[in-house]
Amino acid sequence: MKVVVGGSSGLIGAALVRRLQSDGHDVLRLVRRAPTAPDEAEWDPVGSSIDAGALAGVDAVVHLGGASITGQRWDAAYKQMIRDSRVNSTRLLSETIAGFHPKPSVFLCASALGFYGDMKDEIATENTPKGRGFLADVTAEWEAATVPASDAGIRVCNMRIGVVLSKDGDLPRRMLAPFKMGLGGKLGNGKQYMSWVHIDDVVGGFVQALDMPSLEGPVNLSVPNAATNREFTKALARAVKRPAMFIVPKFALRIAMGEAAQFATESTRMYPLKLSQSGYRFRWEDIDLALRDILRD
């Protein structure tokens, strides 16, 4: 299978490309510069340009682009970047492949748990309606940008990815130092749910979606048993063999992070109904084992 991958240099993209290549697929990576290798094709989502000729005849398209929502305060300009980096690039790809003859059989596009907003302890399946807030609005626009492809008869999966656990990801790097010093602790009351997923299962979920024609539309991609922040905090403390006695008040997070604090304080308890029904079995469902794996030297 010939697979085009946008966002191939990112955390998920790099891992997915390795898996696809090891499975024997021919991968074409979209890059935002002049190509320097036969497996690259140039595009410019900001300028709405793409080398469509290089993509002709591909079997599948995967898109994983988007500016990070962590590590920076969300001023008006950055919120616009979060939105545009997702919506505009997705629309460009979607409209481009919609005009192909023959067309790719499938378009997998990253999406996010932010679609559901703050749901307290309610379980969110793919049938749960959109929530409220900035991230919910952006995610809905992001998914809507794939409509040209689906209207053209291409199978589209909007992969609603949870909080990714990876040794190369933002989460361990940002949290590890205080926890190793014994300064870790829960956020607020710790009751908010965090729908997490190991990087191995993110890749596994995408491969399942590529291979299973029955998967279509929104697809939740996180473990079946989401952890509360309190459970995650205790598991991380066990993994680094340090106590986690502190409590970070929500108001302190809001002062430090502004609107971006909602990523850490809102509760989303996703359940991967479609993936489970398709027969996918998560490799990492135990939070202790998953954290130990990504924190290994």
Give a quick precis of the structure.
The protein is an alpha/beta fold. The protein has helices spanning 11-22, 52-55, 76-98, 134-144, 147-151, 170-180, 199-211, 229-240, 250-257, 262-265, 273-277, 287-294, and strands at residues 2-6, 26-31, 40-44, 49-50, 60-63, 106-112, 123-124, 155-161, 163-165, 185-187, 193-194, 196-198, 217-221, 227-228, 246-248, 269-270. It has an 8-stranded mixed sheet with strand order 4-3-2-1-5-6-8-13, sandwiched between helices.
Write the layout of secondary structure elements.
Elements: E1 2-6, H1 11-22, E2 26-31, E3 40-44, E4 49-50, H2 52-55, E5 60-63, H3 76-98, E6 106-112, E7 123-124, H4 134-144, H5 147-151, E8 155-161, E9 163-165, H6 170-180, E10 185-187, E11 193-194, E12 196-198, H7 199-211, E13 217-221, E14 227-228, H8 229-240, E15 246-248, H9 250-257, H10 262-265, E16 269-270, H11 273-277, H12 287-294
Helix pairs in contact: 1-7, 3-4, 8-12
Notable traits:
single chain; 297 residues; alpha/beta; Rossmann fold; two-stranded parallel sheet; globular
Q: What general outline do the C-alpha atoms trace?
A: globular
**What distance lies between the first and last C-alpha atoms, to the nearest angstrom?**
35 Å
| CATH 4th-level superfamily | NAD(P)-binding Rossmann-like Domain
Task: Look up the CATH topology.
Answer: Rossmann fold
Query: Judging by the overall fold, what is the CATH architecture?
Result: 3-Layer(aba) Sandwich
Strand order of the largest sheet: 4-3-2-1-5-6-8-13
Which runs of at least 5 residues are low in confidence (pLDDT < 50)?
none
| Radius of gyration using CA atoms only | 19 Å
The H-and-E topology, N to C, reads as: EHEEEHEHEEHHEEHEEEHEEHEHHEHH
**Percent of sequence in beta strands:** 15-25%
Count the E strands.
16
Structural class by SSE content: alpha/beta
Quickly count the helices: 12
- Percentage of residues in helical conformation: 25-40%
Overall number of domains? 1
| Biggest β-sheet strands, sense, barrel | 8 strands, mixed
